[in-house]
Amino acid sequence: MNSYNNWLFDVTDRVATLTLNRAEKMNSITPEALLELRELVGVINGRSDIWAVVVASAGDHFTVGVDVSAIGMMVGQEPETYRQNLRDLQDCLDQFEALTKPTIAQIRGYCLGGGMILACCCDFRVVSKTAVFGLPEVKRSIGVIMGTQRITRVAGLAATKEMTLLAENFGAEQAQRYGLVTQLVADEALETAVSDLANKFRSLPPRAVGVAKRIIDEGYSMTVRESQDLEIEAQQALLNSADFQEAVAAFFAKRPPRYTGR
Questions:
Q1: Could you give the CA distance from residue 251 to residue 157 in angstroms, rounded to a whole number?
Q2: How far apart are CA 43 and CA 8, in angstroms?
Q3: How many C-beta atoms surround the C-beta of residue 151 within 10 A?
Q4: Where are the beta strands (DSSP E) in 84-222?
Q5: Which of 20, 115, 228, 252 has the least CB density, counted as fewest CB within 10 Å?
Q6: pLDDT-based confidence at residue 74 (cuts at 50, 70, 90)
């Protein structure tokens, strides 16, 4: 098993947990942490025993966002070097978001800046009632540079402008009103709520879940006809799978299906 400087990686009963392990820095996200995340994506994609992914954090905070040292590195860079470095870091989140396995963010404490972007890369966000969100970049004379459209897709145009242009922190209940929250729970119930949600995917056919996620994510920017063609092609790939055959057999036998991921 690989070891990582910024993440803890555990797989238990078909659920992988990625824990950002920089509690002493309030889990600020360094370039190295993003590059390790991309490496972890490759590991997860290669493991058929992982059916769902939880993104958590050590300590009291999900993450305060991109580490200020990384922001300072942008000063004085040659334009093309700056562009290439930033594209490379953006690609780390692109690849994480493209995971075909369902992803759940476990959010407590601060969830700021690039941390909000990371959370919006996840399919579900389970949030402590005491969590604090914010996009402070504008106050530092920075545009949101790790994927603003991810927030827009989740919260909508008007809410994203309010969050981004005012650059004010806001609480978990406001985040829920913005549509950023899948489930809002007491802090002491956070881990249980995340575990309960992840457990649901242990009994679902993972290939079908992955296909459905791909249809939603890729189809979002397609025409209806294009998205319907994607549905046809994606389902075609499942027709000869063992899980599809099991689903049909279980339906006619009036028994719960037993999926294997094949």
A1: 42
A2: 13
A3: 22
A4: 103-107, 110-112, 124-128, 132-134, 170-171, 183-185
A5: 252
A6: confident
The burial of 8, by beta-carbon neighbours within 10 Å (0-12 exposed, 13-18 middle, 19 or more buried), is given as: middle
Nearest alpha carbon to residue 126 among 192, 40, 37, 171: 192
CATH number of 7-202: 3.90.226.10
Q: What are phi and psi of 77, to 5 degrees?
A: -70, 150
Counting every residue written for the chain, the total comes to: 262
Q: Are 106 and 194 in contact (CB under 8 A)?
A: yes
Beta sheet of 7-12, edge-to-edge order:
7-12, 15-20, 52-57, 103-107, 124-128, 183-185
Q: How many CA atoms lie within 13 A of 220 on its CB side?
A: 11
All structural domains of the chain with their residue ranges: 7-202, 204-253
65: left (phi over 0), alpha (psi -120 to 50) or beta: left
Q: Kindly report, residue by residue over 177-198, the tens digit of the pLDDT.
A: 999 999 999 999 999 999 999 9
CA distances from 227 to 100, 223, 231, 233, 237 (A): 17, 6, 6, 10, 16
